[in-house]
Amino acid sequence: MNAPVSTSDLAMLSMTEAADAFAAGEVTATALTQACLARIDAFDAGVNSVIRLDRDAALETAGAADAARAAGKPLGALAGVPMMHKDMYYRAGKVSTCGSKIRRDFVAPKTATVLQRLDAAGAIDMGALNMAEFAQNPTGHNAHFGDCHNPWDLAYCTGGSSSGSGAGVAARFFYAALGSDTGGSIRLPATICGVTGLKATQTRVPRTGVMPLSFSADNVGPLVRTARDAARFLALTAGHCPGDATSAREPVPDYEAALSGDIRGLRVAVCETYFLEGADAPVAAAFETALLALAARGAVITRVKAASMRAINAYTALVSRVEGAAIHANWMREQPQDYAIHLSSRLYGGYAIPAHLYVEALSRRGPLLRQFVAETLTGFDVVATPTLKTRVPTLAETDIDADPENWGRFMAVSANTRPFNFLGLPTISLPCGFDERGLPIGLQLAARPFAEATVLRAADAFQQETDWHRRAPAL
Protein backbone atom coordinates (compact mmCIF):
# COMPACT_ATOMS: atom_id res chain seq x y z
CA MET A 1 0.00 0.00 0.00
CA ASN A 2 1.59 3.27 -1.10
CA ALA A 3 -1.03 5.95 -0.41
CA PRO A 4 -2.74 6.92 2.85
CA VAL A 5 -5.92 4.94 3.41
CA SER A 6 -9.29 6.70 3.48
CA THR A 7 -11.03 6.32 6.83
CA SER A 8 -14.27 5.38 5.09
CA ASP A 9 -12.55 2.42 3.44
CA LEU A 10 -10.74 1.10 6.52
CA ALA A 11 -13.24 -1.62 7.37
CA MET A 12 -12.96 -3.02 3.83
CA LEU A 13 -9.25 -3.80 4.12
CA SER A 14 -8.07 -7.37 4.48
CA MET A 15 -6.21 -8.38 7.64
CA THR A 16 -2.79 -8.17 6.00
CA GLU A 17 -3.65 -4.86 4.33
CA ALA A 18 -4.68 -3.41 7.69
CA ALA A 19 -1.55 -4.71 9.41
CA ASP A 20 0.74 -3.44 6.68
CA ALA A 21 -0.98 -0.04 6.57
CA PHE A 22 -0.52 0.34 10.32
CA ALA A 23 3.13 -0.74 10.15
CA ALA A 24 3.76 1.78 7.35
CA GLY A 25 2.23 4.63 9.35
CA GLU A 26 -0.65 5.07 6.91
CA VAL A 27 -3.35 4.52 9.52
CA THR A 28 -3.63 4.33 13.30
CA ALA A 29 -4.75 1.31 15.27
CA THR A 30 -7.33 3.56 16.90
CA ALA A 31 -8.82 4.45 13.51
CA LEU A 32 -8.96 0.77 12.50
CA THR A 33 -10.68 -0.12 15.75
CA GLN A 34 -13.15 2.74 15.51
CA ALA A 35 -14.04 1.75 11.94
CA CYS A 36 -14.86 -1.78 13.11
CA LEU A 37 -16.82 -0.61 16.14
CA ALA A 38 -18.85 1.75 13.98
CA ARG A 39 -19.94 -1.12 11.72
CA ILE A 40 -20.80 -3.32 14.69
CA ASP A 41 -22.89 -0.51 16.19
CA ALA A 42 -24.65 0.09 12.86
CA PHE A 43 -25.35 -3.45 11.72
CA ASP A 44 -24.87 -6.19 14.31
CA ALA A 45 -28.35 -5.84 15.74
CA GLY A 46 -29.53 -7.64 12.61
CA VAL A 47 -26.62 -10.04 12.19
CA ASN A 48 -26.27 -11.00 15.89
CA SER A 49 -22.64 -12.05 15.61
CA VAL A 50 -21.34 -10.59 18.90
CA ILE A 51 -21.78 -12.09 22.36
CA ARG A 52 -19.35 -9.84 24.25
CA LEU A 53 -17.94 -6.54 23.01
CA ASP A 54 -14.90 -5.26 24.94
CA ARG A 55 -15.08 -1.75 23.49
CA ASP A 56 -13.02 0.15 26.07
CA ALA A 57 -10.32 -2.50 26.32
CA ALA A 58 -9.97 -2.63 22.54
CA LEU A 59 -9.58 1.14 22.25
CA GLU A 60 -7.05 1.11 25.08
CA THR A 61 -5.02 -1.60 23.34
CA ALA A 62 -5.22 0.33 20.08
CA GLY A 63 -3.96 3.48 21.78
CA ALA A 64 -1.04 1.54 23.24
CA ALA A 65 -0.19 0.20 19.77
CA ASP A 66 -0.22 3.73 18.34
CA ALA A 67 2.07 4.92 21.12
CA ALA A 68 4.44 1.98 20.58
CA ARG A 69 4.70 2.73 16.88
CA ALA A 70 5.27 6.43 17.54
CA ALA A 71 8.08 5.53 19.94
CA GLY A 72 9.75 3.33 17.36
CA LYS A 73 9.26 0.14 19.34
CA PRO A 74 9.22 -3.25 17.56
CA LEU A 75 5.82 -4.20 16.17
CA GLY A 76 4.29 -7.63 15.71
CA ALA A 77 3.11 -8.84 12.32
CA LEU A 78 -0.54 -8.21 13.30
CA ALA A 79 0.02 -5.05 15.32
CA GLY A 80 -2.97 -2.72 15.39
CA VAL A 81 -5.41 -5.19 13.79
CA PRO A 82 -8.82 -5.63 15.52
CA MET A 83 -10.17 -9.17 15.79
CA MET A 84 -12.90 -11.05 17.61
CA HIS A 85 -13.09 -14.74 18.34
CA LYS A 86 -15.54 -17.59 18.73
CA ASP A 87 -16.67 -17.68 22.37
CA MET A 88 -14.90 -20.94 23.20
CA TYR A 89 -11.37 -19.54 23.31
CA TYR A 90 -10.55 -18.92 26.94
CA ARG A 91 -9.12 -15.61 28.13
CA ALA A 92 -8.21 -15.51 31.81
CA GLY A 93 -10.75 -13.55 33.82
CA LYS A 94 -13.31 -13.31 30.99
CA VAL A 95 -16.59 -15.21 30.67
CA SER A 96 -16.49 -17.85 27.95
CA THR A 97 -20.01 -19.11 27.26
CA CYS A 98 -19.26 -21.65 24.51
CA GLY A 99 -22.63 -20.52 23.17
CA SER A 100 -24.39 -22.42 25.95
CA LYS A 101 -26.68 -21.91 28.92
CA ILE A 102 -24.49 -24.23 30.98
CA ARG A 103 -21.41 -22.00 30.66
CA ARG A 104 -23.16 -18.65 30.54
CA ASP A 105 -21.24 -17.53 33.66
CA PHE A 106 -18.04 -19.57 33.29
CA VAL A 107 -14.95 -17.42 33.91
CA ALA A 108 -11.89 -18.81 32.16
CA PRO A 109 -8.93 -19.59 34.46
CA LYS A 110 -6.34 -19.33 31.67
CA THR A 111 -5.78 -17.84 28.23
CA ALA A 112 -5.75 -20.09 25.18
CA THR A 113 -2.34 -20.59 23.61
CA VAL A 114 -3.57 -19.34 20.26
CA LEU A 115 -4.80 -16.09 21.87
CA GLN A 116 -1.46 -15.66 23.60
CA ARG A 117 0.26 -15.95 20.23
CA LEU A 118 -2.07 -13.41 18.64
CA ASP A 119 -1.46 -11.06 21.57
CA ALA A 120 2.29 -11.43 21.02
CA ALA A 121 1.78 -10.54 17.35
CA GLY A 122 0.07 -7.30 18.40
CA ALA A 123 -3.53 -8.13 17.45
CA ILE A 124 -6.35 -6.26 19.21
CA ASP A 125 -8.96 -8.54 20.80
CA MET A 126 -12.38 -6.82 20.74
CA GLY A 127 -14.41 -9.61 22.38
CA ALA A 128 -16.30 -12.86 21.81
CA LEU A 129 -18.57 -14.11 19.06
CA ASN A 130 -21.81 -16.02 18.75
CA MET A 131 -21.56 -19.70 17.87
CA ALA A 132 -23.55 -22.91 17.76
CA GLU A 133 -24.05 -24.31 21.26
CA PHE A 134 -20.84 -26.11 22.29
CA ALA A 135 -19.79 -25.93 18.61
CA GLN A 136 -22.14 -28.79 17.77
CA ASN A 137 -24.11 -27.89 14.67
CA PRO A 138 -23.23 -26.99 11.08
CA THR A 139 -25.78 -24.21 10.58
CA GLY A 140 -25.16 -21.66 13.35
CA HIS A 141 -28.51 -21.87 15.17
CA ASN A 142 -28.37 -20.99 18.86
CA ALA A 143 -31.33 -21.35 21.23
CA HIS A 144 -29.63 -19.44 24.07
CA PHE A 145 -28.10 -16.34 22.43
CA GLY A 146 -30.27 -16.16 19.33
CA ASP A 147 -29.46 -17.34 15.84
CA CYS A 148 -26.70 -15.64 13.92
CA HIS A 149 -27.89 -14.26 10.55
CA ASN A 150 -26.18 -14.25 7.19
CA PRO A 151 -25.15 -10.67 6.30
CA TRP A 152 -25.89 -11.32 2.61
CA ASP A 153 -29.55 -12.00 3.51
CA LEU A 154 -30.69 -12.17 7.13
CA ALA A 155 -33.21 -14.94 6.42
CA TYR A 156 -30.42 -17.39 5.61
CA CYS A 157 -28.14 -19.38 7.89
CA THR A 158 -24.49 -18.50 8.40
CA GLY A 159 -23.10 -22.00 8.59
CA GLY A 160 -21.70 -23.26 11.85
CA SER A 161 -20.52 -23.78 14.29
CA SER A 162 -18.33 -20.65 13.94
CA SER A 163 -21.36 -18.59 12.95
CA GLY A 164 -20.39 -15.24 14.45
CA SER A 165 -16.86 -15.57 13.08
CA GLY A 166 -18.02 -16.09 9.49
CA ALA A 167 -20.80 -13.49 9.61
CA GLY A 168 -18.66 -10.86 11.33
CA VAL A 169 -15.71 -11.18 8.95
CA ALA A 170 -18.11 -11.01 5.99
CA ALA A 171 -19.87 -7.95 7.44
CA ARG A 172 -16.49 -6.23 7.93
CA PHE A 173 -16.96 -5.97 11.70
CA PHE A 174 -13.32 -7.04 12.24
CA TYR A 175 -10.44 -8.29 10.08
CA ALA A 176 -10.07 -11.86 11.33
CA ALA A 177 -11.66 -14.30 13.73
CA LEU A 178 -10.80 -17.62 15.25
CA GLY A 179 -13.17 -20.45 14.51
CA SER A 180 -12.90 -24.13 15.25
CA ASP A 181 -13.40 -27.02 12.85
CA THR A 182 -14.46 -30.54 13.84
CA GLY A 183 -16.69 -31.34 10.86
CA GLY A 184 -16.47 -28.15 8.83
CA SER A 185 -17.12 -25.43 11.40
CA ILE A 186 -14.56 -23.04 9.89
CA ARG A 187 -15.08 -23.89 6.24
CA LEU A 188 -18.91 -23.90 6.33
CA PRO A 189 -19.37 -20.35 7.65
CA ALA A 190 -16.55 -19.31 5.32
CA THR A 191 -18.34 -20.58 2.22
CA ILE A 192 -21.85 -19.61 3.33
CA CYS A 193 -20.80 -16.07 4.33
CA GLY A 194 -18.40 -15.56 1.41
CA VAL A 195 -15.05 -15.39 3.21
CA THR A 196 -11.89 -17.51 3.46
CA GLY A 197 -11.50 -20.21 6.13
CA LEU A 198 -8.54 -22.49 6.82
CA LYS A 199 -8.46 -25.81 8.65
CA ALA A 200 -4.83 -26.81 8.97
CA THR A 201 -3.53 -30.35 9.38
CA GLN A 202 -4.85 -32.04 12.51
CA THR A 203 -2.50 -31.08 15.44
CA ARG A 204 -0.85 -28.23 13.49
CA VAL A 205 -2.25 -25.51 15.83
CA PRO A 206 -2.38 -26.17 19.61
CA ARG A 207 -5.77 -26.44 21.30
CA THR A 208 -4.75 -25.52 24.84
CA GLY A 209 -7.40 -23.35 26.49
CA VAL A 210 -10.11 -24.17 23.95
CA MET A 211 -13.41 -25.89 24.83
CA PRO A 212 -13.21 -29.34 23.18
CA LEU A 213 -15.83 -31.07 21.06
CA SER A 214 -13.93 -34.10 19.75
CA PHE A 215 -10.53 -35.20 21.02
CA SER A 216 -9.39 -36.53 17.67
CA ALA A 217 -11.01 -34.12 15.19
CA ASP A 218 -10.95 -30.58 16.66
CA ASN A 219 -8.94 -27.94 14.81
CA VAL A 220 -8.10 -24.30 15.56
CA GLY A 221 -8.01 -21.86 12.66
CA PRO A 222 -8.95 -18.50 11.15
CA LEU A 223 -11.79 -16.99 9.17
CA VAL A 224 -10.38 -14.09 7.16
CA ARG A 225 -10.80 -12.23 3.87
CA THR A 226 -7.96 -13.76 1.84
CA ALA A 227 -5.59 -16.70 1.54
CA ARG A 228 -2.74 -14.29 2.30
CA ASP A 229 -4.47 -13.40 5.56
CA ALA A 230 -4.76 -17.10 6.37
CA ALA A 231 -1.08 -17.66 5.59
CA ARG A 232 0.09 -14.95 7.98
CA PHE A 233 -2.38 -15.99 10.65
CA LEU A 234 -1.30 -19.63 10.50
CA ALA A 235 2.41 -18.84 10.59
CA LEU A 236 1.89 -16.87 13.82
CA THR A 237 -0.33 -19.41 15.59
CA ALA A 238 0.94 -22.83 14.49
CA GLY A 239 3.65 -24.83 16.23
CA HIS A 240 4.07 -27.10 19.21
CA CYS A 241 2.81 -26.07 22.65
CA PRO A 242 4.00 -27.97 25.76
CA GLY A 243 0.49 -27.64 27.20
CA ASP A 244 -0.98 -29.61 24.30
CA ALA A 245 0.81 -32.94 24.00
CA THR A 246 -1.03 -33.64 20.74
CA SER A 247 0.28 -30.51 18.99
CA ALA A 248 2.69 -31.25 16.15
CA ARG A 249 6.41 -30.56 16.31
CA GLU A 250 6.70 -30.04 12.55
CA PRO A 251 8.60 -26.84 11.63
CA VAL A 252 6.37 -23.89 10.74
CA PRO A 253 7.39 -22.29 7.44
CA ASP A 254 6.82 -18.72 6.28
CA TYR A 255 3.62 -19.48 4.39
CA GLU A 256 3.16 -15.94 3.17
CA ALA A 257 6.57 -15.82 1.48
CA ALA A 258 5.53 -18.64 -0.86
CA LEU A 259 2.47 -16.82 -2.25
CA SER A 260 3.83 -15.95 -5.68
CA GLY A 261 0.64 -16.44 -7.68
CA ASP A 262 2.51 -18.92 -9.85
CA ILE A 263 0.84 -22.34 -9.92
CA ARG A 264 2.03 -23.44 -13.35
CA GLY A 265 2.10 -27.21 -13.33
CA LEU A 266 0.14 -27.54 -10.07
CA ARG A 267 -1.75 -30.83 -10.32
CA VAL A 268 -5.37 -30.54 -9.21
CA ALA A 269 -7.47 -33.67 -8.68
CA VAL A 270 -11.23 -33.22 -8.97
CA CYS A 271 -12.78 -36.00 -6.88
CA GLU A 272 -16.08 -36.68 -8.63
CA THR A 273 -17.04 -39.57 -6.34
CA TYR A 274 -19.25 -38.36 -3.48
CA PHE A 275 -18.22 -34.67 -3.46
CA LEU A 276 -20.05 -33.74 -6.67
CA GLU A 277 -22.88 -36.26 -6.44
CA GLY A 278 -26.21 -34.45 -6.11
CA ALA A 279 -24.67 -30.97 -6.22
CA ASP A 280 -27.11 -28.16 -6.96
CA ALA A 281 -26.77 -26.72 -10.47
CA PRO A 282 -25.51 -23.23 -9.41
CA VAL A 283 -22.89 -24.85 -7.15
CA ALA A 284 -21.70 -27.21 -9.89
CA ALA A 285 -21.51 -24.35 -12.39
CA ALA A 286 -19.53 -22.08 -10.05
CA PHE A 287 -17.19 -24.95 -9.22
CA GLU A 288 -16.47 -25.63 -12.90
CA THR A 289 -15.80 -21.93 -13.45
CA ALA A 290 -13.41 -21.98 -10.48
CA LEU A 291 -11.51 -24.85 -12.07
CA LEU A 292 -11.14 -22.75 -15.23
CA ALA A 293 -9.67 -19.93 -13.12
CA LEU A 294 -7.10 -22.34 -11.64
CA ALA A 295 -6.32 -23.62 -15.14
CA ALA A 296 -5.85 -20.03 -16.35
CA ARG A 297 -3.08 -19.73 -13.78
CA GLY A 298 -1.39 -22.84 -15.12
CA ALA A 299 -2.88 -25.62 -12.98
CA VAL A 300 -3.50 -29.01 -14.58
CA ILE A 301 -6.99 -30.37 -13.82
CA THR A 302 -7.70 -34.12 -13.76
CA ARG A 303 -10.88 -36.00 -12.78
CA VAL A 304 -10.47 -38.87 -10.29
CA LYS A 305 -12.66 -41.21 -8.25
CA ALA A 306 -12.32 -42.36 -4.62
CA ALA A 307 -13.82 -45.66 -3.55
CA SER A 308 -13.17 -44.98 0.14
CA MET A 309 -15.67 -42.14 0.69
CA ARG A 310 -18.60 -44.15 2.08
CA ALA A 311 -16.51 -45.60 4.93
CA ILE A 312 -14.83 -42.28 5.64
CA ASN A 313 -18.16 -40.48 5.95
CA ALA A 314 -19.63 -43.13 8.25
CA TYR A 315 -16.63 -43.20 10.58
CA THR A 316 -16.45 -39.39 10.72
CA ALA A 317 -19.93 -39.09 12.26
CA LEU A 318 -19.35 -42.03 14.61
CA VAL A 319 -16.14 -40.62 16.13
CA SER A 320 -17.49 -37.11 16.75
CA ARG A 321 -20.70 -38.48 18.31
CA VAL A 322 -18.87 -40.72 20.79
CA GLU A 323 -16.20 -38.20 21.75
CA GLY A 324 -18.74 -35.40 22.13
CA ALA A 325 -20.88 -37.60 24.37
CA ALA A 326 -17.87 -38.42 26.55
CA ILE A 327 -16.93 -34.75 26.98
CA HIS A 328 -20.49 -33.84 28.02
CA ALA A 329 -21.22 -36.89 30.21
CA ASN A 330 -21.34 -35.08 33.56
CA TRP A 331 -23.49 -32.20 32.35
CA MET A 332 -25.79 -34.61 30.54
CA ARG A 333 -26.32 -36.49 33.79
CA GLU A 334 -26.78 -33.39 35.94
CA GLN A 335 -28.52 -30.81 33.72
CA PRO A 336 -29.67 -32.25 30.39
CA GLN A 337 -32.57 -29.77 30.34
CA ASP A 338 -30.09 -26.93 29.75
CA TYR A 339 -29.16 -28.18 26.29
CA ALA A 340 -31.06 -27.32 23.12
CA ILE A 341 -33.27 -30.24 22.07
CA HIS A 342 -31.27 -31.13 18.98
CA LEU A 343 -27.99 -31.18 20.92
CA SER A 344 -29.17 -33.32 23.82
CA SER A 345 -30.67 -35.83 21.36
CA ARG A 346 -27.37 -35.90 19.45
CA LEU A 347 -25.43 -36.52 22.67
CA TYR A 348 -27.82 -39.25 23.83
CA GLY A 349 -27.22 -40.96 20.51
CA GLY A 350 -23.49 -40.98 21.22
CA TYR A 351 -24.03 -43.06 24.35
CA ALA A 352 -25.75 -45.77 22.29
CA ILE A 353 -22.77 -46.41 20.00
CA PRO A 354 -20.90 -49.59 21.03
CA ALA A 355 -17.27 -49.17 22.10
CA HIS A 356 -16.05 -51.67 19.53
CA LEU A 357 -17.42 -49.52 16.70
CA TYR A 358 -15.64 -46.45 18.07
CA VAL A 359 -12.36 -48.38 18.33
CA GLU A 360 -12.90 -49.73 14.82
CA ALA A 361 -13.34 -46.19 13.50
CA LEU A 362 -10.11 -45.01 15.14
CA SER A 363 -8.19 -48.04 13.92
CA ARG A 364 -9.40 -47.48 10.36
CA ARG A 365 -8.31 -43.85 10.26
CA GLY A 366 -4.73 -44.49 9.18
CA PRO A 367 -5.56 -47.05 6.50
CA LEU A 368 -8.36 -44.90 5.08
CA LEU A 369 -6.06 -41.87 4.99
CA ARG A 370 -3.50 -43.87 3.04
CA GLN A 371 -6.21 -45.14 0.69
CA PHE A 372 -7.64 -41.67 0.09
CA VAL A 373 -4.17 -40.25 -0.61
CA ALA A 374 -3.50 -43.13 -3.01
CA GLU A 375 -6.79 -42.58 -4.82
CA THR A 376 -6.81 -38.79 -5.03
CA LEU A 377 -3.34 -37.38 -4.29
CA THR A 378 -0.88 -39.81 -5.83
CA GLY A 379 0.47 -37.78 -8.70
CA PHE A 380 -1.48 -34.69 -7.58
CA ASP A 381 -0.86 -31.68 -5.34
CA VAL A 382 -4.38 -30.70 -4.23
CA VAL A 383 -7.92 -32.06 -4.29
CA ALA A 384 -10.69 -29.65 -5.33
CA THR A 385 -14.36 -29.94 -4.35
CA PRO A 386 -17.28 -27.61 -3.68
CA THR A 387 -17.31 -26.75 0.02
CA LEU A 388 -21.11 -27.00 0.19
CA LYS A 389 -22.99 -29.16 -2.33
CA THR A 390 -26.25 -27.27 -2.00
CA ARG A 391 -27.23 -23.64 -2.23
CA VAL A 392 -27.25 -21.84 1.12
CA PRO A 393 -30.37 -22.87 3.10
CA THR A 394 -32.51 -20.53 5.17
CA LEU A 395 -32.53 -20.56 8.96
CA ALA A 396 -36.05 -21.97 8.88
CA GLU A 397 -35.09 -24.79 6.51
CA THR A 398 -32.35 -26.01 8.87
CA ASP A 399 -34.07 -25.46 12.24
CA ILE A 400 -34.37 -29.01 13.57
CA ASP A 401 -35.67 -27.95 16.98
CA ALA A 402 -38.70 -26.37 15.29
CA ASP A 403 -39.15 -29.20 12.78
CA PRO A 404 -37.27 -32.53 13.02
CA GLU A 405 -38.12 -33.11 9.34
CA ASN A 406 -35.31 -30.64 8.58
CA TRP A 407 -32.71 -33.15 9.80
CA GLY A 408 -31.67 -34.32 6.32
CA ARG A 409 -31.11 -30.78 5.08
CA PHE A 410 -29.32 -29.92 8.34
CA MET A 411 -26.82 -32.78 8.02
CA ALA A 412 -26.33 -32.28 4.27
CA VAL A 413 -24.69 -28.92 5.00
CA SER A 414 -21.47 -30.58 6.20
CA ALA A 415 -21.36 -33.52 3.77
CA ASN A 416 -18.31 -32.25 1.86
CA THR A 417 -16.35 -30.95 4.85
CA ARG A 418 -16.62 -33.80 7.39
CA PRO A 419 -14.36 -36.29 5.59
CA PHE A 420 -11.33 -33.99 5.81
CA ASN A 421 -11.64 -33.87 9.59
CA PHE A 422 -11.55 -37.65 9.89
CA LEU A 423 -8.56 -37.70 7.53
CA GLY A 424 -6.87 -34.75 9.27
CA LEU A 425 -5.89 -33.06 6.00
CA PRO A 426 -5.21 -29.33 5.55
CA THR A 427 -8.21 -27.78 3.79
CA ILE A 428 -9.26 -24.27 2.82
CA SER A 429 -12.57 -22.80 1.65
CA LEU A 430 -12.69 -19.63 -0.41
CA PRO A 431 -15.44 -17.75 -2.28
CA CYS A 432 -15.91 -18.78 -5.91
CA GLY A 433 -19.22 -17.23 -6.91
CA PHE A 434 -22.86 -16.52 -6.04
CA ASP A 435 -26.12 -18.24 -6.82
CA GLU A 436 -29.14 -16.55 -8.43
CA ARG A 437 -30.31 -15.30 -5.00
CA GLY A 438 -27.01 -13.54 -4.32
CA LEU A 439 -25.82 -16.10 -1.75
CA PRO A 440 -22.15 -17.18 -1.78
CA ILE A 441 -20.68 -20.43 -3.14
CA GLY A 442 -17.37 -21.87 -1.95
CA LEU A 443 -14.40 -23.76 -3.41
CA GLN A 444 -12.61 -26.26 -1.15
CA LEU A 445 -8.97 -27.28 -1.64
CA ALA A 446 -7.19 -30.00 0.35
CA ALA A 447 -3.71 -31.53 0.31
CA ARG A 448 -1.46 -34.03 2.07
CA PRO A 449 -0.75 -33.71 5.81
CA PHE A 450 1.31 -30.59 6.62
CA ALA A 451 1.07 -29.33 3.03
CA GLU A 452 -0.63 -26.09 4.10
CA ALA A 453 1.83 -24.14 1.96
CA THR A 454 0.53 -25.89 -1.17
CA VAL A 455 -3.10 -25.28 -0.27
CA LEU A 456 -2.43 -21.62 0.48
CA ARG A 457 -0.40 -21.12 -2.71
CA ALA A 458 -3.23 -22.53 -4.81
CA ALA A 459 -5.87 -20.50 -2.96
CA ASP A 460 -3.88 -17.28 -3.26
CA ALA A 461 -3.35 -17.81 -7.00
CA PHE A 462 -7.09 -18.33 -7.41
CA GLN A 463 -7.76 -15.07 -5.56
CA GLN A 464 -5.24 -13.24 -7.73
CA GLU A 465 -7.23 -14.49 -10.72
CA THR A 466 -10.70 -13.66 -9.31
CA ASP A 467 -12.33 -11.00 -7.13
CA TRP A 468 -15.02 -12.97 -5.27
CA HIS A 469 -13.16 -12.44 -1.97
CA ARG A 470 -13.33 -8.66 -2.44
CA ARG A 471 -17.13 -8.57 -2.51
CA ALA A 472 -18.92 -7.48 0.65
CA PRO A 473 -22.61 -7.65 1.63
CA ALA A 474 -24.51 -4.38 1.35
CA LEU A 475 -26.08 -4.64 4.83
Overall 3D shape: globular
Q: Briefly note the structural class of the backbone.
A: alpha/beta
Share of residues in helices: 25-40%
Runs with pLDDT <50, length 5+? none
The CATH architecture would be: Alpha-Beta Complex
Q: Tell me, what is the CATH class?
A: Alpha Beta
First-last Cα distance:
27 Å
CATH superfamily: Amidase signature (AS) domain
* Strand residues, percent: 5-15%
**Total DSSP helices:** 15
What is the H/E string? HHEHEHEHEHEEHEHEHHHHEHHEEH
Extended strand count: 11
CATH topology: Amidase signature (AS) enzymes
Rg result: 21 Å
* Sheet with most strands: strand arrangement: 1-3-2-4-6-5-10-11-9-7-8
Provide mean pLDDT, rounded: 96
Major sheet details: 11 strands, mixed
Number of structural units classed as domains: 1
Pfam families: Amidase
InterPro entries: Amidase, Amidase_CS, Amidase_dom, AS_sf
Protein name: Amidase
Structure description:
This protein has 475 residues and is of the alpha/beta class. The mean pLDDT is 96. Helix 2 packs antiparallel against helix 3 (55-70), helix 5 (163-170) runs parallel beside helix 6 and helix 9 crosses helix 12 (355-376). The chain has a single domain, classed as Amidase signature (AS) enzymes (Alpha-Beta Complex), CATH 3.90.1300.10. The chain has 15 helices and 11 strands. It has an 11-stranded mixed β-sheet with strand order 1-3-2-4-6-5-10-11-9-7-8, with helices on both faces. Helix content is 37%, strand content 12%. Strand 10 and strand 11 (440-446) form a beta hairpin.
